[in-house]
Amino acid sequence: MLQSFLFHRYNHETLIFQIVERLLDRLLNEYQYSTEFTDNVQSSSRQAYNLAIKAWANANVQGSAKNAERVLKRLKLTNINNKNVNVKELAKADIYSFAYCYAAWYLEATFAANGGDEKSSNIAMRKAESVLQSMKQVLMKKDDEDSKHSSQNMVEDVNSLLVLWSNTNVKLPGLSQQFLRFIEAESKGTTDNWLNTRSYNLVINAWSKSGAVAKAEALLKSMEEKSSTISPDLLTYSGVISSISKSKRESDIKKAEHILQRVSKSKNIQPDNIIYNMVMNIYSKRGQGSVKKCEMLLKTMESLAAQGNEEVAPDIRTYNLLLTAYSTEFGAVEAEKILHRIEKHKSINPNVITYTTCMDSYSKKGDAHNALRILSLMEKAFKGGNLDCKPTRRAYVSALNSLASSGRGDAGARGEALVQTMERMANDGYPELLPDTTVYNVLINCHKNSAARAEKVLYRMGKRDVVSYSSVINIHSKSNGGIKAAKRAQELLDEMQHEQIIPNSYTYNSAITAFASSGSRGAAQRAEGLLKRMEDAGIKPSAKVYTSVITAWGKSNKPGSALRAEVLLKLMWQMYKRDGNKDIKPNFVTFTSVISAWSSSRDKQAGQRAEALLDNMIKLYKRGDSELKPNVVTFTSVIQAYARVGGRDAADAANGILRQMKALGVAPNLQTYNVLISLWGNSQQIGAGLKAESILTKLEDEYQNGNKDMKPTVVSYTSVINAWAKSSCFGKAERANDILKRMKSNDCQPNEFSYTAVINSCATTYNEEEKQDAFKIAYRCFKELSEAEHLHPNHVTYSTFMRAIGKLMPDGEKKDSMMSIAFRLCVRDAMCDSNCLFHLRQAAPPELVQDLLGCSDESEAARLTFEELPSQWTRNVAKQSSRPRNKIK
Length: 889
Prior knowledge:
Blueprint: H1 2-9, H2 20-32, H3 39-57, H4 64-81, H5 95-114, H6 118-139, H7 145-152, H8 154-168, H9 173-187, H10 197-209, H11 213-225, H12 234-245, H13 250-265, H14 273-284, H15 290-306, H16 316-330, H17 332-343, H18 352-364, H19 368-383, H20 393-404, H21 411-427, H22 437-446, H23 451-460, H24 466-477, H25 482-498, H26 505-518, H27 523-536, H28 543-556, H29 561-579, H30 588-599, H31 606-622, H32 632-645, H33 648-663, H34 670-681, H35 688-704, H36 714-725, H37 732-745, H38 752-763, H39 768-787, H40 795-808, H41 813-828, H42 834-843, H43 846-853, H44 858-863, H45 871-874
Helix pairs in contact: 2-3, 3-4, 3-5, 4-5, 5-6, 8-9, 8-10, 9-10, 10-11, 10-12, 11-12, 12-13, 12-14, 13-14, 14-15, 14-16, 15-16, 16-17, 16-18, 17-18, 18-19, 18-20, 19-20, 20-21, 20-22, 21-22, 22-23, 22-24, 23-24, 24-25, 24-26, 25-26, 26-27, 26-28, 27-28, 28-29, 28-30, 29-30, 30-31, 30-32, ...
């Protein structure tokens, strides 16, 4: 019983190793008082010792190898100290005793090497070799009859150990290799079969599991070169090909077909379809050229089968791999042609994998229509008698995935229908189709457009996991639901922790993104609070998580937010340099987010701070960090930072940034040019209007020459009009009006901001010779905007037009009449703001102001504030009225 307890527990609980020897003593004590000394007792005693050695070998604690060797020595001393006992009654050390002790020292050497302790590693490895030498002295004596008997069964023992190490020490194939080489060396010059082909195959498979192609191939080559009875078989070659399947190097992949050719040329080995399928599997996932290779392999298989080797005849797996190759290289449509090719085959019928692979191909590109169509074909084939086409849960998951990624408005409803079908089939005798957590998780993603429906699925499913909650939280983060969605995301995060479901990095990032995209007050603080909570939970945030928090600060518009974003960037960089953790390394998205935060800040130093970050990115990129190459968004954000601040130096800085773009091969886009136009408008430089207009002309020319991405937008034209409005050039009102005309002629509909900008260019005309013409332009623009079917003046338009009346019209009855009309229209549309009130007082005589404001005397009219105006005069200042209006005459 104790022996059974030891055997079943030592692999699971490290604490049991502390009582290994106590259990060993008890076992040996039981054997000592056994009524008879038999070979079985002797074997049991040895097994007890071996289990103790093995337990220490697997302990993975400091000193475990030393303890393993101590137990081995104790076993050997038992034989020495019991001289009066018959030799046959002693528990002698066997190959397992030494092998387990060797493994303990080998593992200790590996752990020391991984920890950087080369000296300790070398000492432990010498100890491992010493144990093997001891095994040689005790078990491999050619004049010892008992040893001779042991050596006859050596091959079985060696293979048993190689199987054990292959399963328990997957990441240490060298353990098996060194043991094999030792046995191989000691077997030379003997007639004993200490190794066989299976021994080598087991070591090759150990290397294969770790993807060590060169090691596996070297062992195969050594077998091919041997002149003894040990030679490679089909499993040997298959093992090497298996190692190649895990490699991504093109040079390794080519070796697979070469090894297959070596099998075909062998006189003693007949290839089968399994080894051909292994090579086809390697090619099927490689993309370009994979179809040609797979078709050639298929043709070779058919040819060999026709010559009499039926074992190599293509099977359904062969055709499924061919279908995968077509899907990978050419897409779903071509893959489906292989499906129909299989359906027409004389001896091979498609199976569930055939249809599911085809569905996956459509699902990857979000083609739900065709994925569902293939599912129907599968169901039809099953009902028609092809039992291999019985739909599986995996097939329905593929169909659901196609809906989830399709963007269809009915994805949720269609997904629900599929799940109901699964539930119905489960009740009809197919319990394996009962929807599980994975099915419901994909169904949640089918409801991407409705967080409420996604939550209904969450609470309807039985077992929920981290993916379930994370998916719903992610849907809330992308729902444009503002602070309400963000708070709900955090509530779900709290709920899953209450349910003892541990959130992961993706969960936290989704919740943080919900706050980042909400744009609400305090969102950045809430996002950073979640970041700290994540760190406190022991989850290391990735660069993506930090970037989401930085984005939240960039959108907060709170004083100091850009600086806080930059502090987080520097913190990320420090952690990356300190720990070498690439997951936290800032990338160009992170840097661009901080630059964008500065461009939104209106800080006086925003342009310089943004450009300093850009310079740092370029410097790191030139040093070899390809992930930090700035893109067009990065450069445009820096220009935007200068544009918002304005000033005479901004234009010169922008020109320098454009030169840097050109040097790095980054082409400006429409947004870049729009920002440049705005920058020139705010630059206060002489000729800024002309410069802005020249950029617009460049955009128009590029669009006319076929570059459809450069078609000027309403922003482009309006920004040029604003540039003229802010200039002091003669004729600026006419130039602004000309841009408005160009805008209309180029099929770009002006908006209220465009008309208002032209009116502003008129209102800021100070040359007496131009005033009359300028007012005519302002009046026409105001009239045209007022009469537009889908546009109407806003509060800025009214205040600007009233300013134009005051600045451009001579005092008199006409001016007073025009001001009266403009103000009454403003009041009617509830667009009266403080600027309207100001310009009314500036332009109209006191008695008219008194009359328009409805005051009892002029002094009351002069004292009236915006806050004291009737709400029906001001209620649409923040939103434009949609009521019909009288047309201005």
